[in-house]
Amino acid sequence: xxxxxxxxxxxxxxxxxxxxxxxxxDGCTDAQFDALALRLFAHQYENNESFRRFxxxxxxxxxxxxxxxxxxxxxxxxxxxxxxxxxxxxxxxRVFMTSGTTRxxxxxxxFHPTLAVYDASMTxxxxxxxxxxxxxxxxxxxxxxxxxxxNSSLAHYLALAVREFGTADSxxxxxxxxxxxxxxxxxxxxxxxxxxxxxxxxxxxxxxHIIDELQRRGQRFRLPPGSRLLDTGGYKGxxxxxxxxxxxxLLSATLGVAREHCINMYGMTELSTQFYDSGNAVVPxxxxxxxxxxxxxxxxxxxxxxxxxxxxxxxxxDLANFNSVTTILTEDVGVETDGGFLLxxxxxxxxxxxxxxxxxxxxxxxxx
Amino acid sequence: xxxxxxxxxxxxxxxxEHVQWQTLHFESGQAAVEVTVPVLTAAQxxxxxxxxxxxxxxxxKTLSVSHxxxxxxxxxxxxLDPADPYRQQADRLLPVISGYDAExxxxxxxxxxxxxxAAQLHRFVAEDFANPKLLDEFQPAAKGGAIRAFGPELLxxxxxxxxxxxxxxxxxxxxxxxxxxxxxxxxxxxxxxGLFARLLAEVHPPxxxxxxxxxxxxxxxxxxxALFAQxxxxxxxxxNESLQQIRSRLPVTTRFLPYGHKxxxxxxxxxxxxxxxxxxxxxxxxxxxxxxxxxxxxxPHVFYVQRxxxxxxxxxxxxxxxxxxxxxxxxxRRAAALxxxxxxxxWRQSSELKALAxxxxxxxxxxxxxxxxxxxDSPQPLAPTAAHRNIQVVALDQLDDVIPLVAPYRAFLQxxxxxxxxxxxxxxxxxxxxxxxxxxxxxxAMTAPExxxxxxxxxxxxxxxRICEIEQSAERAADRIAPYxxxxxx
Lengths: 368, 490
Known about the structure:
The complex is a heterodimer. By secondary structure, chain A is an alpha/beta fold. Chain A has helices at residues 10-24, 30-47, 49-57, 78-81, 116-131, 153-165, 181-194, 204-217, 244-255, 359-367, and strands spanning 74-75, 94-97, 109-112, 138-142, 171-172, 174-175, 178-179, 198-203, 228-232, 262-266, 275-276, 286-287, 293-298, 312-318, 327-337, 340-346. Chain A is 34% helix and 20% strand. In chain A, strands 1, 12, 13, 14, 15 and 16 form a six-stranded mixed beta sheet that branches. Chain A has a six-stranded mixed beta sheet with strand order 5-4-8-9-10-11, sandwiched between helices. Chain A has a two-stranded antiparallel ribbon with strand order 2-3. In chain A, a hairpin with a 2-residue loop joins strand 6 and strand 7 (178-179). Chain A is globular and about 65 Å long. The termini of chain A are far apart. The radius of gyration of chain B is 25 Å and the shape is globular. In chain B, the strands form four sheets. Chain B has a seven-stranded mixed beta sheet with strand order 13-14-15-12-11-16-17, sandwiched between helices. Chain B has a five-stranded parallel beta sheet with strand order 8-7-6-9-10, with helices on both faces. A three-stranded mixed beta sheet of chain B has the order 1-3-2. Chain B is of the alpha/beta class. Chain B has 15 helices and 18 strands. Classes of the chains: A alpha/beta, B alpha/beta. The interface between A and B is large, with 38 and 53 residues.
């Protein structure tokens, strides 16, 4: 451990060590997953008053929770309303905040007493799912760097990607002045000529801007074999909405990377682990995560799992969330499939069908 | 499952085989309806508009207002007759299309149609025209000279929402000012407007071509433009975003009357909270919540309840929950799609989280219950719930405390219900009106505006007409050239 690492209480560092060892395994049995999930639940129930009251409201206590499926899922709004941290918030190494797309200025906060677990989760999973065995690759990042966005989990994720897996000539193309497209296209041109594989990673909306701009200029690239793309995060009103099929068709056509190598990462500020697909030749693609995260698809009102093949809302139990809450209720619609789940988009606030103002419209208006 | 079929729209002068049709599928419980809706070309849309204009010139503008009222009254009498085939069709199909409980729809329609009988229609006209004959002929003006009111040549009405029968308000407004009307069906209830147009044509055949009911898919701008180009007045309901889109497509010379989505609330004073009145008030409040599952612009989302009565705000919330549970047995809530249930779940969870974060809050209602009452012990600003029988109750020390909580949302205010003694009612009405409220109703009557109400605080008939006046100078000048004019007189 280097000197900048915070000093954790002995009980916490013991838990962290157990967790890191668990993540270092090649996989786990159901019983092993449950055992660690229950240990973390007991820890969070004990040390987080907001979470304990939330559980009590649902009649869930360590005595009555027998497996990861029994752990009450905290709605992601809980990260806005409550302080979900076992360690005192002030003593945490880093806090990641949501971008606050729907609730105006209220941001969800995810406290990390140490980033050791987040970083181990990210690198181990990224090595397998994105790098696919390659040691390093030249990277271009379509997102601001960590110093510009210290509270962005995505900025940290991308910084880790560059630090751990990027070659020395990797670089960022987004600054406070926006996307430096001249530099980007120059680099892509040079890469094309070099024949060396290249990886472009960033927010999905940045790729939409690039697609639009390249189409306008009538320009396209053919990145060398072995190149790959990683997009994440949807469009969030930053660019035009593009149907997924069109997005990957255009992405592949404008950058010359086969859709099998256009990988989408599904991550959330409220989690410490990411999901990936194995390319987007077919959309929606199957998303899956490493052995330390499990997902269920539930009916949002009853909280019960829906029958296989039915649409519902995704719940994730992420053991790397050792300090906040392992189990979160998302606002994402999904359906369970072999080997993972399909992500079918965000459960948008219901459209106003009547003449009464809908929540979404109200929030839009309140922001304006 | 039984599948019913219906054809939406009303296209006088267009033959069905010359029109393209699209089939929409609706399902509710044990029944399904296939509704075919017309998809017109821009040329057909224009021809239809011209036909409606010409027919209303010949057959509608020539009728007196009293005669129009008599015709509408005959049509409405048939809608009030349970044995009438038009009424039976409405009772059969509207619950399936809208998903609402059939009995709730039946009762709702009957009470709604009663507002359109002759006596109520006369009141409606008298609300806006001290002298209703202005709509028929020139009448002396108080300042001198004479005035007459003319309705639009072509009134285009764009409807929204799924509250059954709602287009009747603006359809009748158009008829009362003798406007030929071309209505665009709402996205979620395609049936009633066409049904009314056919009934009207049957009751008074010369009116057969004075109304047309059309439809177009969102995004079909050229078709919409073909219609808008013919309109002198466009009246539209919808979200501010869709109203903005319509407005941006209209010539600046076209009068535009937008009715945006609104947010209702109730105020319960401590005098209404004794042991006898509180349960009754809660029962009425529950009716306002249940009727069309809070989809109306007048539907309540928050009840502000004053502390200090015999029954506390928290107890009132519990009474309200009990009444919602009772009404669920009588009028089961309609099924909700995943997008609705996740919105409901999100609202309930956020209420639950707020209750965890602040003392004294509570979410009443089991996770799967079709209704829920969120109780807040501290002041909460007005905000929409997820509707579908999810209601917020907020405790206040003083009724006046409600004003700063609702005033920031002025643009979204319309109906407030008030339960308070008379002096308090008028005092609160003064404050609420100043804050932007345009309609104050009794609790229990929020969803049934009375005949002649001023929707969103506007004069719904006056807004449609233009006045033509004969000035005194013209009268005097005419006198001077009359054959019987006396050369000597000035």
